[in-house]
Amino acid sequence: MDITPVLPQSDGKIDFDMLDCSTSGPEVAIVEDFELQASPNNAISVIELIGNESKVLFYTDCSRPLLVLYVKNIQRFLKILLLCEDDTGTEIKFEFSNNNSFVSVDKHGHCKLPLEIDFGWQYICMDLEDIVANACGTTFSICKEVTVCGSCRLLKMYFQSKRFADCELPNYLRLVGIE
Fold this sequence. Notes:
- This protein is mainly beta and 179 residues long.
- It has one helix at 128-136, and strands at residues 3-7, 21-24, 27-33, 44-50, 55-62, 66-86, 91-97, 104-105, 110-114, 120-127, 140-160.
- Strands 1, 2, 3, 4, 5, 6, 7, 8, 9, 10 and 11 form an 11-stranded mixed beta sheet that branches.
- It starts with a strand and ends in a 19-residue tail after the last strand.
- The mean pLDDT is 88.
């Protein structure tokens, strides 16, 4: 299957020691989310970030063009930072934030884009080929890093080559019928 899992990596368990990531800020932790219960009294583990200074950086180095995140917006501030490289070898920084209200692209390869996200659990699928082509006029090559900042909970993150229905995903990446 054309999927590269980032979170969780295999069996659905989240463990910072097993992830290729780094965390910083006052409150970054693995917690249980009782809204996502596999069965009564059996909550699902998620990464929780609280506060504008909290962040988790995932080292991805993935060439698959679709980035999928299951994220829960729990307060006002949420930002997703991507460090990508295009076919010319140029690094491009994308900043998606619910604090941005307009698109800006500077000559140094830094693009700021608005992120419209409701409260509660959300499915986000970013087409990196489309984003790089529209912002820079070049071709997406690789996503080197994904950073999630602000107040949210992160359940799953993976890259895929094409869009898959939930029932086509491996069990540990499915949202319906979470185990």
